[in-house]
Design brief:
The protein is α/β, with parallel strands linked by helices. The strands form four sheets. It has a five-stranded mixed β-sheet with strand order 4-3-5-12-6, sandwiched between helices. A three-stranded antiparallel β-sheet has the order 10-7-11. It has a two-stranded antiparallel ribbon with strand order 1-2. Strand 3, helix 5 and strand 4 form a beta-alpha-beta unit. The radius of gyration is 22 Å and the shape is elongated.
């Protein structure tokens, strides 16, 4: 087993394609395939299953990947500490629902990460894709919420994907609205107060089930509905149309317009926001730092409420 073979496994898992990985590694596809086959034969497990649709990492492969990442990271730490050579490129990926605190933590990680080269990815995406990204190791961290309504369904998908949910905080529901909205001066709002206004929610694609909705109370019927795919559009429509959406109330005014405010929604609901990780993969150093920054960003933004 060589360090180079471990790097090959990491890149193939990231690319989800031997051909794409070979291109990024600047080697031929047959050479990469042979290196992986030799490694699998040496350690006696199948790391990747080959299918008509591409490659899929096995459960044993996921566990091996966790150890491989640790070895490569420790090697890079040694090289950075004792070698004058140029540091190696680092990779880190996060998939999340549309939360400003997740972006704030990501920004801080990038600012504090003093390297000449890196490749970081932040995906604000659909709920099912967040779970799928972490399950298939496209992202180390996934950020989403659960409550009493969706908990059983979400937990079922997490169990099937060998994933764990770690709570970050519990919040009471709020609405996000424009500071010019007639409801902005109210101490709190009720569901009936919201009837005259357009309701904005995030589109969930092929998995547009009530259980995968990014907003609570997804089964309620509303007279005016607008679905969007990104946070900037949603905020623009909150302002332009006096619309509203339902969320945690945690908003970053460093990253978002101060024209958007949070008003408590009077309902008997709670929102548990957390991050998911793969059970068979040990967190990288960057993942642990990011999680710490998540806690700090949330604490700071909760203090603004």
């Amino acid at each position: 087993m060589t360090l180079q073979q471990l790097k090959y496994v990491i890149e193939v898992a990231r690319s989800r394609s031997i051909n794409k990985a070979a291109q990024k590694l600047f080697i031929s596809q047959p050479s990469l395939s042979n290196a992986l086959k030799e490694l699998e034969e040496e350690i006696g497990i199948t790391i990747f299953s080959r299918t008509n649709k591409g490659i899929v990492m096995t459960s044993e492969g996921s566990e091996f990947l966790g150890y491989a990442r640790q070895v490569v990271e420790q090697t890079e730490l040694l090289e950075n500490r004792y070698s004058k050579a140029r540091s190696l490129q680092q990779n880190f990926s996060v998939s999340a629902q549309h939360y400003a605190f997740a972006v704030s933590a990501f920004v801080r990680l990038l600012k504090d990460y003093d390297r000449e080269e890196y490749e970081f990815t932040f995906r604000e995406t659909k709920t099912y894709e967040i779970i799928d990204d972490v399950k298939n190791l496209r992202s180390e961290i996934g950020i989403l919420y659960v409550n009493e309504f969706n908990k059983k369904v979400i937990q079922k998908f997490l169990r099937e994907g060998s994933l764990e949910f770690h709570e970050l905080f519990e919040a009471s529901p709020h609405i996000f609205i424009s500071s010019a909205n007639p409801l902005a001066k109210k101490e709190y709002v009720t569901l009936s107060d919201l009837d005259p206004y357009p309701y904005l929610s995030y589109e969930q694609g092929d998995y547009n089930s009530f259980y995968f909705s990014e907003e609570i109370l997804s089964t309620l019927s509303r007279p005016k509905n607008i679905r969007v795919t990104d946070r900037a559009t949603l905020f623009n429509l909150l302002i332009g149309l006096n619309g509203y959406t339902i969320s945690t109330g945690v908003i970053s005014h460093k990253l978002n317009s101060k024209d958007i405010i949070a008003v408590p929604l009077k309902v008997d609901e709670r929102i548990n926001v957390g991050y998911i990780t793969h059970k068979n993969v040990t967190n990288s150093t960057l993942a642990n730092i990011y999680i710490q920054y998540l806690h700090e960003s949330i604490k700071e933004e909760l203090g603004q409420l």
